[in-house]
Backbone:
């Protein structure tokens, strides 16, 4: 499968007369198509840069009215393909991220509780940020991966690929913040832990 499928402009096929075309078993009015600036392309689409319809079977329009309305037509921006390998793998990853999100929320509830009185000036928000960012990363990944299904299914790309890429970008930013907060939290914990060990060692020496 090629990465880029180029399309060529095709001439309208002949029909019963000079104002008629015979397209995949259907007669369409050529005068109306030309009036509304429709062009036939080699990728099986009929478009005037504002509207796009499929022409391949079984999506061939049954009729076109004088006002440019197509009868029994299928838009190019329709999820008509089957789910591909990328979509199936994406669904699997989305489920995995969903499980991670549940585990992150459990850890947030467990490690983000406030055990000391408020007047002790201990704010638990510093311990919660890595879990907040982890939840954000999982949520954006799930949304982007599920929209990736329609990226595979759309014949011509439309809004799903925009949403997919947008949430992928948000996930990268969230991952950077998650790593930052996790490292910062780990460094803070190590500092407190080393201080505790130093005080314990000093205490043991004093008792000795």
Residues:
């Amino acid at each position: 499968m090629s990465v880029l499928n180029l399309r060529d402009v095709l001439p309208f096929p002949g029909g019963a007369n000079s104002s008629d075309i015979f397209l995949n078993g259907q007669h369409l009015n050529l005068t109306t198509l030309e009036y509304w600036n429709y062009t036939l392309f080699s990728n099986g689409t009929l478009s005037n840069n504002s509207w796009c319809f499929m022409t391949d079977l079984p999506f061939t329009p049954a009729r076109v009215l004088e006002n440019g309305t197509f009868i029994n037509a299928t838009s190019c921006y329709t999820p008509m393909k089957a789910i591909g390998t990328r979509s199936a793998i994406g669904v699997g990853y989305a489920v995995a991220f969903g499980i991670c999100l549940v585990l992150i929320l459990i850890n947030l509830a467990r490690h983000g509780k406030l055990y000391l009185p408020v007047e002790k000036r201990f704010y638990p928000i510093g311990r919660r940020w890595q879990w907040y960012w982890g939840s954000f990363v999982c949520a954006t990944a799930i949304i982007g991966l599920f929209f990736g299904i329609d990226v595979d299914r759309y014949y011509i790309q439309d809004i799903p690929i925009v949403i997919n890429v947008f949430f992928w970008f948000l996930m990268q930013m969230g991952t950077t913040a998650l790593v930052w907060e996790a490292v910062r939290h780990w460094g803070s914990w190590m500092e407190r832990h080393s201080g505790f060990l130093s005080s314990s060692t000093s205490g043991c020496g004093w008792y000795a």
